[in-house]
Design goal:
By secondary structure, this protein is of the alpha+beta class. It contains 2 helices and 6 strands; from the N terminus they run E-E-E-H-E-H-E-E. The longest helix is centred in the middle third of the chain and has 21 residues. It is globular.
């Protein structure tokens, strides 16, 4: 498979795409929780890209995500979108490059902390 970018990120909460956007009278905006999550994840991803010297700005990719959450009854697909949006433009150019996603939802061992482990590989 070649190079693999690994990103580990701990946060208080992984936002769901269902609560990502709020409609106001004249526009739709991201919630502060989602903005914080995506900015912080982006910073961690940027650091990982620099440290590991791996970038996937072109070509097909595979993304593997392990979520460690406090509430395992949450919808996995809703956490995926918020997470991928935070990586776009940093770990990869655009999420249209993703041809395979593998995800796993786990119970967090830490009571008030959630964690995401992301692995990105190029596809030949």
């Amino acid at each position: 498979m070649g190079k693999e970018l690994i990103i580990e990120f701990e946060t208080q909460s992984i936002p769901s795409v269902n609560s990502t956007y709020v409609r106001t009278l004249d526009r739709v905006v991201k919630t502060k929780e989602t903005e914080y999550y995506q900015r912080a994840l982006g910073f961690i991803a940027l650091s990982a890209v620099a440290k590991q010297k791996i970038s996937f700005m072109s070509g097909k990719i595979q993304v593997s995500i392990d979520f460690f959450v406090n509430n395992v009854n949450r919808d996995l697909d809703n956490m995926i979108k918020s997470t991928l949006d935070g990586l776009q433009g940093i770990a990869f150019k655009n999420d249209s490059q993703i041809f395979k996603i593998v995800c796993l939802k786990n119970k967090s061992k830490a009571k008030n902390t959630e964690k995401v482990i992301i692995k990105i590989n190029g596809l030949d």
